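Quick entry between incubations.
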Amino acid sequence: MSFVVVDRALLADHATVVAPRLLNKILLRDDGRAVRIVEVEAYGGAEDGASHARGGPTARCAPMFGPPGHLYRYLIYGMHHCANVVTGPDAKGQAVLIRAGEPVARLDALRVARPRARRDVELANGPAKLCEAMSIGPALDGADLCDPSGLLRLVDDGTAPPRRPGRSTRIGITRDTARRWRWYVPGDPCVSGRSPS
DNA sequence: CTTTGGATCGTCT
DNA sequence: GACGATCCAAAGG
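Done. Structure below.
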C-alpha cells in the first residue's frame, strides 16, 4: 500500500465538512515518520468565537486566510505547538486542528522525538504531543501539505474515513463552546482524553 | 482512578 | 498586561 498526497480539492470546503473527511488520512514526515489522524476539530472564521480567525486576519493566523492545504502552526501556553490544515473554498479563515494521531511508521523516530511517552499510544494522543512526535515547529509554518516533495505531507493510504465518526463539542475552549465541531475515530485508543458529548 | 497547579511566552487588547 | 485550540507530575481517594 502506497501513500498518495491528498488532493487539494478535498480541502477546499468548509472546515466542518473537511474535518471528518481527514479522519484516517495520514501525516507523513520526510524521514518516514507517519501518524494516522484519528481526532480533529473544525475552526471557522468570523462566525466562530473560538477561532483565532474570529477577528479577521492577524499576523499569527494569516495562514488561515491563505490557500487550503497549507499548515497553520501556532504556539500555545508559551511552550506547545498545534498543527492545523487550512481549509475553505477561499480566504474565509478556516482550518482543521489535528488533535491526535495513531503511530503507523518509524515508531523508533517518533519515540526519540517524544521521549516522555511511556507507551506508544501516548506518542501523539494530543495536539501538542503529535507536533512533538512529528517535529512540527516554526520551520514548517505555511508548508504546503499537498506538495509531493514537501517535508510534511498529508497523504492517503486507501483507508476510508469512518462511516459513522464520533462527534462532540470542542476541547479546551472558553467561547462558542456549544458547537459540536470535534470528530474522532470511534474506539481508537489514541483519541485524546475523555470524550465530551 | 481523579483533581490540581505550575510551566512559559507570543499575541492581541 | 492578561490570556490561552496543553501537558505533566504530584497529591489525594
